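Key result, reporting period 2: structure in, sequence out.
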């Protein structure tokens, strides 16, 4: 067994594993990050793609021992602050993910493309994803989803995220509940005071009658 330190999805990590293991096996078996998929394990299908120091690599062809002090990003690391990456949203919305097995590899590879070329052409998208194979979609939906993510990402910079909107709604609802609670408490307090004063006046009148 060997132990290496690396950064996985932004978190400093130490992991111990057998020295013959590939990065794919370390991620799935030792770090329990099963979003990265076993495919052909020959470097031909792209299902196991991850980002290594922000560059797409086929993790079935990379030895884990070569990843010490490096940064690995898997599909689990694409979401930030409770919000899906625009690519994840557009892949779901446009049917670019069908059986889903190849999807993680497409997502991380497409992310690397958009990080380097924020507004790629269709030909650039096609070339960047040429090493990723899909048996379900026919690729058209995948190319369209990457193009849609470009627009989605630009829009996201101009408006609050869904996560922020949920927080705003939650804060507003909490404030409204506090107002209702306060009003009910004030009303109940006033009614109790009226009842106390009424009983006191009645008791005083009865004492006066007896005297």
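The corresponding designed sequence is given below.
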């Amino acid at each position: 067994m060997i132990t290496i330190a690396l950064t996985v999805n932004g978190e400093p990590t130490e992991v111990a594993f057998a020295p013959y293991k590939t990065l794919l096996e370390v991620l799935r078996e030792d770090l329990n990050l099963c979003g990265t998929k076993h495919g052909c394990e020959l470097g031909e299908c792209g299902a196991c793609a991850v980002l290594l120091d922000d560059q797409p690599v086929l993790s079935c062809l990379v030895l884990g021992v070569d990843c010490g002090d490096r940064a690995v990003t898997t599909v689990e690391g694409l979401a930030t602050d409770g919000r899906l990456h625009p690519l994840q949203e557009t892949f779901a919305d446009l049917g670019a993910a069908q059986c889903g097995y190849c999807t993680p590899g497409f997502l991380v590879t497409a992310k690397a493309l958009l990080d380097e070329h924020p507004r790629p052409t269709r030909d650039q998208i096609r070339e960047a994803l040429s090493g990723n194979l899909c048996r379900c979609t026919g690729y058209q939906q995948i190319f369209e989803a990457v193009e849609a993510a470009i627009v989605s990402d630009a829009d996201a910079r101009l408006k609050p995220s869904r996560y922020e909107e949920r927080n705003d709604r939650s804060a507003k609802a909490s404030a409204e509940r506090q107002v209702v609670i306060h009003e009910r408490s004030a009303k109940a307090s006033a009614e109790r005071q009226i009842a106390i004063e009424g009983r006191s006046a009645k008791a005083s009148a009865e004492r006066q009658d007896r005297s």
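The mean pLDDT is 87. The beta strands are 2-8, 11-17, 49-52, 55-58, 71-73. This case is discussed further under Risks and Mitigation.
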